[in-house]
Amino acid sequence: MDEPQAAARLVYHREGKPDRRQELILAAYNLIAQRGFEGLRVRAVAAQVGINGATLHHYFPTKEDLIQAVVDYVVARLSAAEAGPDLHASPPELLHYQLKHLAQLMQNEPQLFVALVEINLRQQRNPAANFLARREKDWHTHLTNLLQTGIEQKYWAQNLDPTATASVIIALVEGAGQWAITDPGRGEQVLAQFEKWLLAPP
User: Fold this and answer.
1) Residues 176, 105: one domain?
2) Which structural domain, as residue segments, surrounds residue 184?
3) Which among 123, 124, 127, 135 is placed 20 to 30 Å from 158, CA to CA?
4) Domain boundary among 11, 38, 70
5) pTM metric for this prediction
6) What is the pLDDT of residues 134-148, one digit of tens each?
7) 184: nearest Cα among 105, 86, 98, 79
8) How far apart are CA 172 and CA 179, in angstroms?
9) CA-to-CA distance for 39 and 175, rounded, in angstroms?
C-alpha cells in the first residue's frame, strides 16, 4: 500500500511552539493507516517526530493511550459530518450533507477510512478494546433521530424503520470506506445511490 497522503507534519500551538502531542497522534495515525496495528511501533512514532521513546511516554504513558488518542482523532474527523451547515435545514438536507461530506473524506483523506477499518478489526479481535462502540452508538442514535424527524415531517415513508435504516447507513459508510484507498469514487457512488433510494417518493 502506498504511503498515506497526509504524512506526519509539524503542528504548532498558537504561541508558535510545536504541539508535540498532536504530532505524535498524526504520526501514529499515519503508521496505522499505512501498516496496520502490526506495524505500529512506539519507537517509529517517536522517530518520525524527532524525539526519543522516553519523551513520547511523557505525552502517552502507554501504547494504548496513544491508540486511544488516534481513535479520538479519527472520530473527531468523522464527526464533523454530523453538524450540518444550517441548523434550520430539513432532515433530507442534513442527511445529504453528512453523506456528501463522508464521500468527500473518502476522496480527500482515504487514510482516515483505512485507519477506521484497522480500528474496527482490532476491536473485533480484542472486545476489551472497545474503542468505537460508544462512538458508533452515538452516531446511530443521531441518525435514528434525524430519520424519525424526517418521517414525522413526511419527507420519508411512514413505514420506514429509522433504527434499521440508521444501521444500514453506518454499514454502508464503513463498507464503502474499505474502498477509500483503491477506488474512492466507488464509495461515493454507493452513498449517492442509497440517498436516491431513500429520497424516492413513498
Assistant:
1) yes
2) 80-199
3) 135
4) 70
5) 0.76
6) 788 888 999 999 999
7) 105
8) 11
9) 23
